[in-house]
Structures are given as C-alpha cells and as structure tokens.
Amino acid sequence: MDNLGGNGVVKRLIPLWLAVLSSVMAAGCGPAERLRDAAGAGEPVKIVLTTGFQADEVFRLEDASCSKQEIMVYLATERCRYETVYGPEIWDYAGKEGELEGRLKEKVLAEISQIKAMTLLADVREIALSSQEEEMAAKAAEAYFALMGEEERKVLDVSAEVLEGMYRDYALADKVYREIIRDLNPEISDDEARTITVQHVLLRTARENADGTLTPLSEEEIRQKYDKAQEVRRAASEGEAFESLIEKYSDDSQGTLSFGKGEMEAVFEEAAFNLANGEISGIVETSQGYEVIKCISTFNREETDRNKVKIAEKRKDEVFEQEYDAFVDSLARNLNEELWDSVTLPRGDWEMHAGFFDLYQEYFGRR
Hints:
By secondary structure, this protein is an alpha+beta fold. 54% of the residues lie in helices and 11% in strands.
C-alpha cells in the first residue's frame, strides 16, 4: 500500500506515467480480478454479480459503493494529467488502439476500490473525520466543482455532493493510514542506510525491447564489448580521467550514480560497496553488460539521510499492509460488469485545470 499520509498523498498514491505505460505492454487480468487484487485479497472473490445494482453503481465492497460518477472524475483527472504532459495524441500512440485507455480504466478501478476498502477499515477502527476535516472536504469539492465548465459537468454527470463524498473517502483513507503508522518511529542506522556515489562505464551486451525484456547481442558483438571494457579498465588504471572514459565509451547516459543497499543489481552493488574512495573495479558482468566502476564516495551523508527516510517509510508501509491485507481478505466484491464495460475515457474540449488530487493536496496537505 502506498503512503497516504500528509504531503505525500499525490506523489505516492497515484502511480507515475512510466508505470502505467509499462503495464500497457503486459498481459493483465480482467476487471473482476483487478477489483479483487486492488482490495488486497489473497483468496478468490466471494461473488461477482452483474444484477441487483442501483443506477450508475459500478461496484460494491461489502456496503461501500462506487458510482459511475466517481469513476469518471478519476478518469478525467488522469486524462488531464497525461494530456498536459504528452498532448492529446498520446491515446493514439501508446500501444494498440484503445489499450492505454483500458489499462487506465483498470488502474482507476484499483485505486478507488482500495480507497473504499480503507473507509470500511476506518469504520472497524472507529476512525472518523473531524468537523474541520469534513469542512475541508466540502471546500475542496466546492472549489473543484467551480473549476469545471458546463460541458465537463455534463460529460462527467457529477455534482458537488458526489465530489464532497469522494474527498471525504480520500481523507478518511489518508487518516486510517496515518493512524495505523502514527506511533512507528523506526531507528535506521547509518550503516543500514549508507548511500555511496560511483561513476561507471557500461558496455551493453543486450538490447532492450519495447516490453522491457533483453535480447543478447551476437557472440562477436559481446566479445567486442568485452575488449572495450578492458580498454576502459586499462585506461582508468593508467590515470585517464574517468569522466572522459564515460563520455567516450559508456552506453549509459547516466555516468554518476548514488544508491543504497538493495537498490541495484546484486553483482553491481557488491562490487561497488567493496571499493574504497577513488578505487576502480575490475570488469563486472551484469544483466546489462560489462561495467567498470569507480568509487567517488563510500559515504554520502545527504543521500544517506534521504535513504533513512525511504527505509522508514517502507517499514511503515509494511506494518500498514499487514493489517490492511488481513482486513480485506474476507470482503465481498460485487462488480457491475455490464456498466463497467460501457465506461469510456471522458473526452471533451473543456479547459485543462487542477485535478482532483491537486485540490486534495491544496486543502489537506496544509496539515
């Protein structure tokens, strides 16, 4: 579960574009399975219904319901986010026709089902919004509704009341997370979080495919890469500036790396962490190719402190996930598959504006 707390809400709950784009190329499960997985259940769905729903009801988790209007608001927010960065033509170029839109729908379904599950967990834990938080939800909804033009309101078929309910749900999910991890202050040592800085020259021995897999070069090409790696190692040992070798030989545009333990491929990490300041490695073979590494700093204070925060957040997430996963394991999920299949990405010529999550951050991020 991503961290829902405080100023990190938008950054950590909403997946980055690259994660979505990579999922476009991957085989995915259907909407019913996605609804189950989004709620975190390890067991099969209790039951999936296509009848007995109220008008515009897309799914239920126990007695928590999600309307089509809520889905459309999330989809509109994502549409604006993507088009602001990549332009409206992104839907034509990313994968097969309609594939990105389909993946985006499933992503939104996953996000909302998780929020709904957390509102149920809030009820079990007797967590509720304060009067001040209720007021902030109302103000955020009022501000968002005011930003919307007539066409957008019509396409999304949304009211200020629906938006207010969405902000309440999101704020409640945020509060559940913060309450569960409130008393957790894990102590992270310098050694555990130690971050080093290195420079490296990479001679790639494989080509990366569009789906992220690697295709090895020919044996002759690999041999030539190894010969170049030897040249790099020899030149570095003889005192040639490593920056010059990076520019001349490396197949990686990023010549300097700062990282902690567990962040890089194991063989690369082991070689790098065993170097002293200024020391140069031998030729290290990784899944990417042949590497020659120079240690710039065996301890980067600034990066180490940042890494402590990351490790602490990860541990808090793990504690939250234990309780969350146990809770959602028995929830009944009911998906209105006919209505879900009819949902399409909202299109229109309305002006791009701050999205749902941006306004949440504006009102609730001040705490």
